[in-house]
Amino acid sequence: MEINQSKTVEKDELTGDKLLSDHEYDNIRELDNNLPKWWVWMFIITIVWSVAYIFVYDVIKAAPYQQDEWKNEMAAAGGSSSGQSAAVSAADTIALVDQPSLDAGKEIWIKQCKVCHLDGGQGLVGPNLTDNFSIHGCAYSNVLNIIRVGAPEKGMISWKTQLSDDQMKKVASFVMTLKGTTPPNPKAPQGEPCK
Amino acid sequence: MENQTFYYDNKIVKNFAYATLFWGVIGMVVGLLLALQFIWPALTFGIPYTTFGRIRPIHTNAVIFAFVGNGMFTGIYYSLQRLCKARMFNDLLSKINFWGWQLIIVFAALSFAFGMTTGKEYAELEWPIDILVAVIWIVFGWNMIGTIIKRRTQHIYVAIWFYIATFVTIAVLHVTNSLAIPVSLFKSYPIYAGVQDALVQWWYGHNAVAFFLTTPFLGLMYYFLPKAANRPIFSYRLSIVHFWALIFLYIWAGPHHLLYSALPNWAQSLGVVFSVMLIAPSWGGMVNGLLTLRGAWDRVREDPVLKFMVVAVTAYGMSTFEGPMMSTKTVNAISHFTDWTIGHAHIGALGWNGFLTFAVLYYLIPRIFQTKLFSVKIANLHFWIATLGIIFYAVPLYWGAITQASMWKEFTADGFLKYPNFLETVTQLKPMYAARAIGGAMYIVGIVLGVYNLILTIKAGKFLPDEAASAPALAKAEGKRGSGEGVHRWLERRPVQFTILALIAVLIGGIIEIVPLYLIKTNIPTIASVKPYTPLELQGRDIYVREGCYTCHSQQVRPFRSETERYGEYAKAGEYVYDHPFQWGSKRNGPDLSREGVVGGRQYRPNSWHYNHMENPQRLNEQSIMPVYKWLITDDLDISTTAKKIRVMQTLGVPYPEGFDKIANDDLMAQARGIADDLKSQGINVAPTKEIIAMIAYLQRLGKDVHAAGMPTAAVTAK
Questions:
Q1: Nearest C-alpha of chain A: how many angstroms from B428?
Q2: Of B235, B272, B296, Cβ closest to residue A34
């Protein structure tokens, strides 16, 4: 086949753009257009950005890697929330009785506690909290303490890393109100009878 | 040169088209079932075969490999013959390609339902089916290259460049990522572990998107869009630049799936920058497509084929911009593990692949049946309902993703997580999940309309199995580059050299990223307290893999305050060295589990909790969307495999003592009795031989080794 060397340039009639002469594939033609300028610039900018990124992060290490980001974030927050006091103070012997506190306690109960002790505190994975028995002591201060420090080997986790002191008091106070209620399917008593 | 007459094989095109429609409907209906399980977890029906973790791989594989895969073959078999002015190289190979592929799909669906899975996303197929995939893929490539070689055109068109890149790259990805040592006919362990497995997997996973969902469809766009619009391609030069840039850059971007993970920082950085550099090469395809329509926009309003194409190409442009944005650390910190990923994936799958597939079907079915589309009105209705469906699908998920990510990260003034219970952040999304299901259902209605319209078109037409065409034979061309002939123009008439060059272009990135993880020790700092799993834990882990737990639970705590405060220590590369396969996950429908076994940790639950939770999650919390796993309680653990599993692990370098395989089951039973005794003390009577015991053993091991090291979180840092 001879290559057509004639100077007549074929043009696309709708756009007036130049058609490439021997480019035809199952009647598909191709235009001789250049790369759009904005597209070329977009490509160049992303390449420059990438080189700069690697240079800053991995060559001169001027930006923090993820481990340092974490350290900075923790430092800014004043450390982990697990640093609260674990001791029950003398002021912690009397349960809260005001309705707003008990309501707030109930809300925490629904979110965090009932997944083991069930809705009404009848117990399933965790012990029944409605009967007159207890593994860790029956008094409000005992309940608050076990919420704070947990009994990890038995499966009760320490909540001081997830609840504030105030929240733990509210939920402990709510737990005290469960005693004597009669939800369905109570778990058999565990621990010692309360005096 | 004399004109030769030959016949295009339309029958193979027809077969693939029918398969596309069939699997499309099935794959999407399974997707809808999954979407509904978010709202009504009872729809897992309490049996293994319909549980989320097992049918999610059926959905993803069906849509990717069955619907889009058959759609791709339909378009390639149609366009390749016409672009080469030749019938397919060999009819038998075409048939083997077709029936082999359908067989793989059937095997895939059954094996996933029965829990045979490698636990690696979009590569879940077990080794015998993997081998079948490789064979059939080579048959396809052989048939394609053969056709190209016996072509009657001097040069190969840009569509064929993309087909070639698809063939070679998928072959390399599939084989490399699937390397495994069999334990039995239905079970194997990948040769890679932990961080290495994660990198190879996401190098595969990302490039399956690139070379199975993107490059073949760009090829289809380059053929069908100018054909349907009857317009010349906007820029040949742009085709060249964006093609080579796309295939070279794409392969590097895999690590963006592993940002803020235990993957070394340098590899993460490469994942970020190569994703960002991909914007322009990806958009090159969109630009060349949309600008080809210059002068034909009035026709877009009338022709459903063009309408579908315009939305497809626009969706492609959107997701290829969104993807790089999600690959930056700032956005990824919010989007990763949330429904954002799901929304993003569906813009691509429903918009780009789904719409382009239907454009191709609406174009070629009337042609091979020598008729017109039955109803333009129904096609338009399909178009609008499916477009709205995509919007209803994606927008709620984006909304939900941002909502959930904010809830995960929110602290109270006292410095506590505002939503420490993960479930709260899921319950919040239920309305969004409902809206998503409606969007998905709308898309399916559109598909059904499409199928109906095409069936009536087929009924009205007369099939032309062998379509006559004629073209002059290909003149023997000079091998050397002619004077005035551009290098690329020369390459376009040398398909073998072209294929080799494309292969080299895609190999570079993979080699540079993956090899150093093996050769340079400091990339994965070892942790002395990390020990191999006990036989019972190993069996439990295999159940975890079998049930697809990774489809909803991650095992990768990111170094964010909001995650270390919720879960515990952030992930370290050294803790995963015995994980064949890795199980980091990519989406959190439930909480991360990698610190589950840390006694005294924030996520710790006693054995009895796990037992009750597997038996009936809703009893513990009625809002829970966790499926029930009752069969774990009733089914006996198969311990006949233990010895073989230990031996395979030893082959893979896991340091079990010599001869441990012989006493492994004794060790297993002793540990199982311990757990059964503990459950008994909680009033739960279950035999130590049940699967649930192994599952609990595995969950209670998670995270223990890292905490046993007593390390402060920052002590082990991989630079």
A1: 13
A2: B235
- Please report the pLDDT score of residue A86 as a whole number: 53
CB contact under 8 A, B277 and A158: no
pLDDT digits (tens, 9 = 90+) for A19-41: 998 899 999 999 999 999 999 99
Domain identity same for B509 and B539: no
pLDDT at A2: 42
Give me the residue label for tokens 């040398």: B494
**Looking at chain A, how many residues does it have?**
195
Facing A157 at nearest CB: one of B83, B421, B604: B604
Identify which of A65, A70, A125 has the shortest CB distance to residue B609: A125
Question: Pick from B250, B243, B254, B230: which is nearest to B305 by CA?
Answer: B230
Predicted confidence at residue B476, as pLDDT, reads 77
Q: Is B14 left (phi over 0), alpha (psi -120 to 50) or beta?
A: alpha
Selecting from A31, A57, A66 the residue whose C-beta is nearest the C-beta of B235 gives A31
User: Does pTM top 0.90 for this prediction?
Assistant: yes
CA–CA separation, A129 and A189 (whole Å): 9
Nearest CB to B280 within list A27, A43, A69:
A43
Chain mean pLDDT for chain A: 89
Distance from A120 to chain B by nearest Cα, in Å? 12
* 8 Å CB contact of A73 and B236: no
Same domain, B492 and B611: no
Q: What is the pLDDT of residue B472?
A: 92
Assess whether pLDDT exceeds 90 at residue A91. no
Beta bridge partners, B631, equal none
Claim to verify: residue B541 and residue B598 sit in the same structural domain: yes
Cα B383 from chain centroid? 26
User: Is B661 domain-assigned?
Assistant: yes
Nearest CA in chain A to B572: A67
pLDDT of residue A1: 39
**B101 contacts: CB under 8 Å, gap ≥ 6:** B19, B69, B70, B73, B136
Residues B119, B125: Cα–Cα separation, whole Å: 9
Those residues with Cβ within 8 angstroms of residue B447's Cβ, 6 or more apart along the chain or in another chain: B24, B25, B28, B354, B382, B386
Percent above pLDDT 70 for chain A: 91
Residue B718 — pLDDT band, cuts 50, 70, 90?
very low
- pLDDT computed for residue A82 by the predictor: 59
**Which residues of chain A are within 8 Å of residue B280 when distances are taken between CB atoms?**
39, 42-43, 46
Q: Which residues of B touch A28 (CB under 8 A)?
A: 157, 223, 226-227, 232-233
- pLDDT tens figures, B463-496: 999 999 999 988 877 778 888 889 999 999 999 9
Q: Is residue B220 part of a domain?
A: yes
Looking at the structure, do residues B509 and B544 belong to the same domain, yes or no? no
Q: Do B621 and A114 touch (CB under 8 A)?
A: yes
Q: Which residues of B touch A190 (CB under 8 A)?
A: none
Task: Confirm whether B530 is domain-assigned.
Answer: no
The full set of domains in chain A, from first to last, is 37-76 (no CATH), 85-193 (1.10.760.10)
How sure is the predictor about B206, in pLDDT bands with cuts at 50, 70 and 90?
very high
Q: How buried is A177 (Cβ within 10 angstroms: 0-12 exposed, 13-18 middle, 19+ buried)?
A: middle
> Which residues span the domain enclosing B472?
7-513
Residue A3, min C-alpha distance to chain B (Å) = 11
Residues of B in contact with A53 (CB under 8 A): 269, 272-273, 276
